[in-house]
Write a structure and sequence with these properties.
This protein has 144 residues and is of the alpha+beta class. It has two helices and eleven strands, in the order αβββββαββββββ. A hairpin with a 2-residue loop joins strand 1 and strand 2.
């Protein structure tokens, strides 16, 4: 009798352990994503007087309300064939102004849009000075 009970326990335990776990969104660990690159040319950056940053705003219909609220958006800037996740901070020497500049690249998003922001430590008093972001490539990943 103990052998039958033990055998049944092992069978049911094995079924429970080795069967796949599936929730309301499908199998655990399975998701969808969209990956695309975007190049922002140097003359496409606009100056935001209120935030004192250069920015580029674009509509992205693939960024749904579900992704914005329940998923995730990851962005990296591409430098020298390597990816740097945002926010990204680097120090540069500005030969025109003869000083060092700390550049910060960040992003924000909502359903249907993404905005990139470039700021630099030499931007003050709402004046862009000689600084301009230039052309940059971004890798965008939308996780569903």
């Amino acid at each position: 009798m103990k052998t039958k009970i033990l055998s049944l326990f092992i069978v049911f335990f094995s079924i429970g352990v080795f069967s796949s776990c599936e929730g309301p969104m499908g199998p655990a660990g399975v998701g969808e994503w969209d990956i695309f690159n975007l190049t922002v040319k140097g003359d496409h950056w606009a100056w935001d007087e209120d935030r004192e940053v250069f920015y580029y705003f674009f509509d992205e219909p693939a960024l749904t309300k579900f992704i914005a609220e329940e998923g995730s958006v990851q962005v990296a800037i591409v430098f020298d064939k390597s990816f740097h996740p945002l926010p990204f901070i680097r120090n540069l020497y500005d030969y025109d102004a003869d000083n060092y500049v700390t550049e910060t690249v960040s992003f924000e998003y909502g359903a249907g849009w993404i905005r990139f922001n470039f700021s630099a430590s030499d931007l003050f008093d709402n004046l862009p000075n000689n600084y301009k972001p230039g052309t940059h490539e971004f890798k965008i990943t939308l996780l569903h």
